[in-house]
Amino acid sequence: MPSADLPYCESRFRTVRWKTREVMVGNVGVGGDNPIRVQSMTTTLTDDVDATVRQSIQLAEAGCEIIRITAPTTKAARCLADIHKKFRAAGFENPLVADIHFAPKAAMEAVKHVDKVRINPGNYADRKKFAVREYSDNEYDSELQRLYDAFSPIVLECKNRGKAMRIGTNHGSLSDRIMNHFGDTPEGMVQSALEFIRIAESHDFRDIILSMKASNPKVMIAAYRLAVARMREHGMNYPLHLGVTEAGGGEDGRVKSAIGIGSLLYDGIGDTIRVSLTEDPVHEVPVGQELASRAMSLWSPSKDTPPTSLPEDGIHPYEFTRREAKEVSFGENLTVGGTQPPAVLVRTRLPLTDEQAIIREVCGIQTRFKDAKIEGLIVTPTTSDELVQLAPLGEALHTVLPLIVIDGSQIPAGELKPSLLPSDIRWGILAPISGKKIESANEAISACIASGSTLFAELAEPEDLSILQNRDDLPSTILTLAPSDREISHRLGAYRKLSHACKQAGIRHPIWIRSTDENSILPSDYTSARIVEASMLAGPLLCDGVGDLLSCEIFPDAAMGTAMAFNILQGSRTRITRTEYVACPSCGRTLFDLQSTTAKIREKTDHLKGVTIAVMGCIVNGPGEMADADFGYVGGAPGKINLYVGKECVEIGIPQKKAVDRLIDLIRSHGKWVDPS
Length: 677
Hints:
single chain; alpha/beta; 8-stranded parallel β-sheet; 18 helices; 25 strands; 36% helix; globular
């Protein structure tokens, strides 16, 4: 395991872009001083030239800057000649990229017709058999020589033709050699790419872009971080193509992608991005643009001298470890901190004076979201006269939820008398804590003590934690941050600073992550942008083990705020409340209609809490990406489906019409099925 202080970025508190070498992909520069490039991939059959050209044009018109097309066979690779010709004849100059798996001969043909070739180091010269064996040093050297012989021809062809190459590692398709030597780990992913880079460099070829994709955002984040760290060690600076593979569709796919890609963009890593969605690829482009625009708005200039170690923030960047937090109990139905999964708080926008509307809103959400309910409601009194509404609201909701948090930003905390807060529900007081307002901080602490409430301390900056240190009178406390000047630190960085400040001071209060309009990078009224904002902030923190409570207050609707908080927890693999899907985005290799099939499987299985189902169009990444899935549905041949349990194929060649029902039978036979309620 790499050391925690092995540097992969200049700052984890500000976005300092890592300066990579520029690689020209056709007429588009990637890396260097270029903006982040947004790309996508066609889903048509490559030998359907006209359909592929039409979709390429649609992508270009949507703003896609680089377009990738699969070339699974030499025959398909030859079709790229006509695709390229017709696409250019239509007036488009966007670079075209050939996606290669398993087929060196297809790569040698494709490179004649495209601007870049993508090679998967896990299967370009290897076949994955999940074989377990030990390699002697001589055997390992022999394997590397075999790689050299197999990979050198395409390297030399790219060099001679002036074409670029992406060495694209996928977590799901590491070779058996790498798996046996490094394990199914981020280090294995990085070493797989480095083997191929060294071969390319031996031929003085450096027009290379790297990727380290995985369907699990935690694995993906660690792999990219480690790739940069290892490149720094070896004096390399190749541009990075970011993506979460098999992210799925709808909100799930957008959330997972924003978590993984957003985490790295915050750290100044990433030169081109692809958001993989199980949808029409045109839909991927605006999500990528939302991510890219936010990252570029945060960029700070890089220093001339690279760092020799990471700034301390108490987080291991290459290994998930949850931050230690003491437990805070809100009765028998809610405890936060410790080993408990993060809790979800939701803000109501309704005025306290409309008590009945708030009750209807909360009860409606609790009924609708059976396994993803509000666990704490945030209310905001705007005047002292409204405080009398708190008692009847608490009495009405005490059987529906365990906690109400009073946002005390607009009233003096001293007015929250114990008589206003009945004991049949637990109360929290959200109060600003600032070194500039010590008296108001003391007033809030006293109010919490008098009423038996929990202090939700909204620190102006992480440094204000000192106000809460060494106090014998401190009530149970939750920490969060107020919006602040992003010139000092972006909000993700501020939460990282808070976590580290707690560790240094020996403070173990739970931390509440809040996504609000005020702490957005680029505030927007569009739901799609708010999904990106909330996921970019909360997801990376959760993937680093920081966060005991979460609220998505950026959404004006309480139901959407509830759903998105649970989606982010699910996407970061922090709290599983429903079926988890690993679904590829489809391409010309796909052997069935992936979108409709995924929708059908989801319709019949989305009530299976804690079960992970992989839906894969073909076998390129299927068995590997399903390593942490319970069950897999994989295209084996046209119209035929193979079913997996974990990474073991248990049924082969099932007619597609029967395959979904057979999948359900398989789930049932392994004791994972429950009838929908």
